[in-house]
Amino acid sequence: MEIFMGRNIVKAKLDIIFKKLFEDKNNEDLLHDFLSSMLEIPYEDIKHIVVENSEILPESISGKFSRLDIRMTVDNRLVNCEMQIAKENAFRDRSLFYWSKLYSGDLKSGDEYDKLKQSFSINIINFNEFDTPDFHSVFKLINPANGEQLTDKCAIHFFELKKINKQVNKNNRMELWLQLINAESEEELDMLQQTDVQPIQKAVMIIHQMSDDEKIQELARLREKALHDEASALSTARKEGREEGRAEGREQGRAEGREQGRAEVRNEMIEKMRKSGMTDEQIEKILSE
């Protein structure tokens, strides 16, 4: 997985860069605009945003199998945003599980269920997951028979970067943010800079600044290595599992073959004994001895 191209532009699709871009106190306006665009909530309707997990321990950046997400309280809503580079098995189930933790985790002992808040998950994924040309898929709890919604407290969003249009449309703020996250070259960033959309221009400037920071470059390199090690370890485990399964299957096949052979010999013996005039009782007695 390559994270740098050209003049070593750091990529916002790398979770450590994504997290740093939106969690800096000086970039609250960017997070505000991003959430408004991705959740399709009017900008003015978002009054207050609190990032609940702003601290990243140094060891978590290079540690294997760690997840770097952004958990937020957005007014009276709970929002979790996560970047996912590599495709995982049962990713949809994992996303639903994480949403359920977000939804139920805020309820205190003794609280009534009506205290549960609207809980939204944002999954930005660098692979194709759904059978649709649209880059944005959102899932809610509805009755498929008539479309009636069970509750407005559940929404799980998926944004598939592989389906993003390369052409820049300054009037589509959601797509602009995803194009920024998906950008892998100086040229792509320049195209976004020329849109004159202020939050996007500021984000491009910050990515340039991070690209010139040797410490951030090193953090990105360590994170890239950790993700690569994780992907390699999972791939090796799956391969070993398949090999073990095939070996067990071969042994089971041989055992079944031996059992089938013994059954055929037994049947042939029974047939010969019957032809010689022996009764079933006599045959059963001989076979049981």
Reading the helices and strands in chain order gives HHEHEEHEEEHHHHH
Q: Main beta sheet: strand number and arrangement?
A: 6 strands, mixed
Q: What is the total domain count?
A: 2
Bin the helical content: 40-55%
- The residue-averaged pLDDT reads 86
Q: What general outline do the C-alpha atoms trace?
A: elongated
Physical arrangement of strands within the biggest beta sheet: 1-2-3-4-6-5
Strand content: 5-15%
Based on helices, strands and strand pairing, what is the structural class? alpha/beta
- For the termini, the CA-CA separation is 67 Å
Evaluate the radius of gyration: 29 Å
Identify low-pLDDT runs. 1-6
Number of strands: 6
The count of helical stretches stands at: 9
Molecular structure report:
This protein has 289 residues and is of the alpha/beta class. It folds into two domains: 223 residues, no CATH class; 44 residues. Helix content is 50%, strand content 12%. The chain has a six-stranded mixed beta sheet, with helices on both faces. β2 and β3 form a beta hairpin. The chain is elongated, with a radius of gyration of 29 Å. The termini are far apart. The N terminus is likely disordered.
Q: What key phrases describe this protein's structure?
A:
289 residues, alpha/beta, 2 domains, six-stranded mixed beta sheet, 12% strand
